[in-house]
Amino acid sequence: MYGRKVKLRFFFVLLSLLTLILSVFLIIKSLEENVVYFQSPSEIKVLAEIENKKIRVGGMVKDNSISIQAKEINFIITDYKNEINVIYSGVLPNLFSEGKGVVAEGYLKDKNFFLASKILAKHDENYMPPEVKAALEEK
Fold first, then answer.
1. How do residues 79-123 score in pLDDT, each as one tens digit?
2. What's the predicted TM-score (pTM) here?
3. What are the backbone angles phi and psi of residue 67, rounded to the nearest 5°?
4. Separation CA 58–CA 70 (nearest Å)
5. Domain limits for position 15
6. Considering its fold, how many domains does the chain have in total?
7. Are 58 and 77 in contact (CB under 8 A)?
8. Residue 129: which of 67, 64, 77, 72 has the closest Cα?
9. Which end of the chain, N or C, is less surrounded by CB atoms within 10 Å?
10. CA of 3: how far to CAs of 6, 95, 134, in Å?
11. φ and ψ at 48, to 5 degrees?
């Protein structure tokens, strides 16, 4: 039938293929767990239920909404249709200000309250994240 070398090559190719498939599956699965999607305040308002998952909320910082206490910063993110209150404890990026685009990463406590663990505003004064721009144009 088949010689020993042919069987050994077939086994090696099969083992290599299975290893490759398993590696790709594990990489995709680990990336899936770490992906955080962007949502606007309007999208959060229509959520059926609030999951205890890390999310990103993006929009514009509402004018006259920034309030700084001893250890936390309160502000409102708006997409000019709906708003969400954000509480953040930490250092803000230098370009964070009222009327500018911002993306906050953290956990949703309810549909009006967001506890941020990270503020993403690393851009110049004219830049707006593409997701924020698309969400604002959509509304």
1. 888 999 999 998 888 778 888 888 899 998 888 899 999 998 755
2. 0.65
3. -130, 120
4. 25
5. 1-35
6. 2
7. yes
8. 77
9. N
10. 5, 70, 62
11. -70, -45
